[in-house]
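hiii so my PI (J.) wants the whole complex modelled not just the main chain, which honestly fair. so below is everything: two entries, each one labled with what it is. i double checked the lines twice but i was tired so who knows lol
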Amino acid sequence: MKHRASTHIFILLLVVALTAIAHYSIHYGALIRGYETSPLTAGRNLFLLLILALLPIFLSRFARFQGNWTLYTSAVLLFSIGLTVQYRLFSDPEYTSRKDKAEARQQKIKTLQLHYIQENYSAEKKQMMGLPATPPSPVDLSQEKPRPVEGDLTDVFLSGRTLIPLFSIACFLGAFILFSRDDVLTFLQRNGFAVVLLTLVPLLLAAITSSAGKSIGNMTPWEPAKIPFLIGFAAILSVLYKNLARTYWGVPRAKDVIPLVFMAILPFVPFFVLKDFGQMMVFSAVYATLYLIAVRRLPQRFVLVGSVALLLSILIVGALPEKTQEKIPLLPTLASPVKKVLPDRIQQRFHLWLDGFNPPTPETDWWKEDYDDYYKELVKKDPNLPNLLEEDPNLQKSINIDAWFDVLAFQPAQATFGLNSGGTSGRGLGLGFVELIPVADSDYIYAALAEELGLLGGLLVIFALLTFVSAGVRTALDTRDMFSKLCVIGLTAFIGFQALVNMGGITRALPMTGITLPFVSHGGFSLVTSFVMLGMLLAFSHRNAVDINQVQSSKFQVQS
Amino acid sequence: MHNLLFFLQFDWNQLRPENLFGGQILERTPAGLSIVYVIGIAVLIIFLLLTFLSNFRRPKFTFEENLPREVSRKLTTTLANRSLRIWQFIFIFLAFFVYGFHVYWTYFADDNNEQFQALSYKDLRNRRTNAARLRGWMLDRTGKLGSALAYYKLEPDGDINRTFALEKEMAHLLGTERGTPGLERSLYRQEADATPEAWEVLTRIKRPADEQRDVKITIDRDLQAFLAEQLKDKKGAIVVLNPQTGDVLAMYSNPSFNLSEARTLEDYLKLEGDKRNKPFLNRAMREYYVPGSTFKTFTMVSAFRAGKQNTTLTSTPEGFIPFRGSRSITDANGGCEPPFGCTTLNIMQAFEVSSNQFFAQMAVDLGRERIRETAGAFSILAVDTPEDALQAGFFPDIWNASNDRIKNALAPQQSTIVTGSKISAYDIGLEGMGQGYAGQMTPFQMALIASAPANLEGKLMKPKIELDLPPQMFSQIVTPPQAAQIREIMGLVTEGSGGTATRVFANVRAAGIRSGGKTGTAEKQAPVYDEKTGKLKTVKKKRRNDKGELVEYNAPVMYERTDSWYISIAPLEKPQLAIAVVVEGGGYGAAISAPIAARVIMKARELGLLGEEYRPKTQVPKTLPTKKKGKTK
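here's the output for the full assembly
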């Protein structure tokens, strides 16, 4: 099997065909529930994929791309899975509409009920219900009147869901062309520290204007900050790693350490203000990756590993749910000062992660406020409630459970139930109840995918990701200078870790943090950033291949 | 040429996905296509990995060739690349670690995670699948679709709603969707898997679905509606069983509620908060009453079981004194019951006039062991101390039902009796006449006590609610001749000259129905509620706490409520009904409860429940009952 562009174009065309099949499945599933899906949106999705499938022709012909196509193909594969799941979600009127959600739901239920009656009820029963008296018979979907789709051609093609991917593809090409050039890379490497300072600009702006990890609606404009951070850090580290090896009584010089410490703190401060702990986790993981790869001395590696372990243990000790803490002696005493400092959001997330199906008591300080709000709403409806509570202490417990699952735990709990109901092969595209999970198109897309495609669908994402990461590591292995090596592994790690943190949050292997699944999730800045990173990776891969080809041709000349 | 023609004639519709995967079941098409999609993408990823692996090794650079091993090992690239490989392994491990949690939630959480199981009702998917998959219809004992108790109705706005024929009358039996489950939530066989996976849809699902079939229950729709009418504006309960089969013909507890009123949380809480009327409480099965004289039936059955039915005992004006220094037990009026007066009575006379002295003496004579044993046969929990009696729970095993969910949904509160050696002979005497420590009986239990001698073979049949189940015996109470004898004695209450219900049952007798029964009047301590606010009335009292300090607390104000009881069996030759009626604060048993029982018997006769030979010859004009129905609605 030759590693040619044509092979990958073939694979990508098959991906387009399979995506078309999946879209038809979603369309059919929608008819069963009594609504129509938009053929325009389906066409748009296939068109986007087709552009991506045919892009290799352009790259190999005009840009003379010689690098590793596996990176590109696996990323497009992830993107196609994402488009499919998003199509499922955005077709569902119950998921998309804000005003008549309840009505859309009622209509869906009614359609299913009528189908059931037609298939199972005897003529006599149907007559008693006031329906035409027909014997039990299979439903004919062509006779049904499904709820029509909203939106016309311009709506579909001028929406963000079309323009953002197109813009991402453009950015991808730009990044590829830009980073293929030697002079750009040399410039960036020389001015590493200035590039790092660039990082701060969007982050600080965002930190001032935003709240709760999201700014201006659901946008995360600091996503692109990843790239300058990475380039700057790689530039600094590629110089410093040699100096760090020079130690005086086992300690490196201060002027070599200070930039590293600065870089370590850099992502923490703005994200702490932004309360975006997912990005904090991803940035720290990337930082650790680069550091451990560049630094050679064992004690220096231990310094990082040790300090990360210390930070983590402090965090975990502080945020563990009380029930778990009580099992270990001394822990509650140790935890109480940490608890006071930790933001409520972290404590909530930790509780949701470790003890999500066990509501905290209403007295817990990070839960009290939400509970009180919920309780006040109830009292508004039923003024007699406080009296009832006095008489019946169990009532408060059940109100607390209701509040917990209606307010904080609603989304994660529904996602977990979704994972559970998916089973091995999933419910089938269009047959699950993914519309019950709020914002399932971005943060929780893995839950939606797992419900309708099951464990196997999850395995697809994991394997596509592993292929991508392995290809990235391969590219990093092939690079000849430290700067490129660190850049490549940094880009790979950013995408890989972000995916793991996202999926880990949904499967409850990690606390849920609200970051997107790269290439799969529906997103603005995150999708653009992911595609730019892909472009950079391809550029580095291309440079490696060019280098090797030159070497090989020179070898050939020497031998001849 | 022929082949080409065949090709042209080929029906391309056969290749449509609907036809490939089995078009009758709609879900099969998307399920099959999804599986095709997953497999296709999986194959592509494997293909991709193969192309990647085949180009795995890169050629070496010139300077790398012929380097000594020691040197190449120390090269920066080599060191960094080793770290890269380690990092890759760590990443792969982490990816599968995360995936492992996905596997956990799909396969293991159902069995191992208790909190997850307990809160799985919070899964909105259940509600959605339940709403779409309609329950079967609930039919009454006639089995006609026209007299369905629960069915689906097409509303004018096109909604399909579950509707109940006797929404208020059967509320306790049907149960709410929110609180304690009833028949609605337990009667229908749940599908093994309401949320099938794609491959299960392809291989297992059948149409038309054979689950969720309609269920016939033993309740008689008209009789149930009649009971609700009888208890209008009263608090109490009526239970009607068929003693031969254990069929529950009707069971009603008032105050009741409308099921539609209990749908939203606010309405539900409002009903739950009504502590004065307790509309959610099924008084027929889950409220304790002091059984009073009706419990003498139990003592009589015990006497028969012990072979002491021929014992005669003497009543005295000063009453029965079980041991020296004890208080005396006298008859209701303070001396001896008329018309026999203070003489030696046999069991028939004593039962007819409801002699307290006789049954108290009989209980002491029988002794704790025999009472305990009889109680066990009647499913009454015999405990050692009064404190233990407070611990009694539900008793689902009394039911003859096809599954445990039904048993649990209908489980009665278990009645108790104290027989331990710590209580005195005086207390045993009181128990013999249905007072004292026998004071925790449910109306349902009393109907069971009536039904055992009413059974022609002297068996206590397990009650059942599903019509098609074969009858099951709970225990053999007495021998068939003894049962006949007991029935005759019970008949004296409505037929004997001194019988406590003789006057009330005159019209029943006139209709040619012989019936037996027992009246009861019992005092129970009950809390007082404020007339206006409906709140519990309390007084401030002081008591010493554990540390010996005086603390103030709110004690509820209690008053003595006189409950009216009647248990009945009819017709005496071959009983088809065993009835227990209790009306809270109703006064004498003969005054309120016995007339209700008489009317229930007459209604059952009209409905043909007593057997064809008892059906009235001249049909009662049909307009009458429908008129009444109109009023209740």
